[in-house]
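Key result, reporting period 2: structure in, sequence out.
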């Protein structure tokens, strides 16, 4: 588990934040998870509920459930143990 946590932390230093660049093939992306490639990821419903909030997208980083979903996404999709 320690190795995953280190790798996850390093990955986030490169893939952090929210983006919705129409010129990016991934289109809407949060912490490296692109909606174009992972449209069924459970985190998108959470992100969508915050879009009309005045502190969007910074509020996303404060949602504990969402941050756990991101970690689980990377663990289950990209980590071999």
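The corresponding designed sequence is given below.
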């Amino acid at each position: 588990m320690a190795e995953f946590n280190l790798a996850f932390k390093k990955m986030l230093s490169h893939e952090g934040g929210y983006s919705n660049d129409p010129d990016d093939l991934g289109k809407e992306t949060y912490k490296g998870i692109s909606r174009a490639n992972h449209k069924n990821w459970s985190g998108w419903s959470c992100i969508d509920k915050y879009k009309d909030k005045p502190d969007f997208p910074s509020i996303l980083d404060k949602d504990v459930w969402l941050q756990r979903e991101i970690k689980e996404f990377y663990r289950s999709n990209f980590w071999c143990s």
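Helices lie at 2-15, 43-50, 64-78. The longest strand covers residues 18-20. This case is discussed further under Risks and Mitigation.
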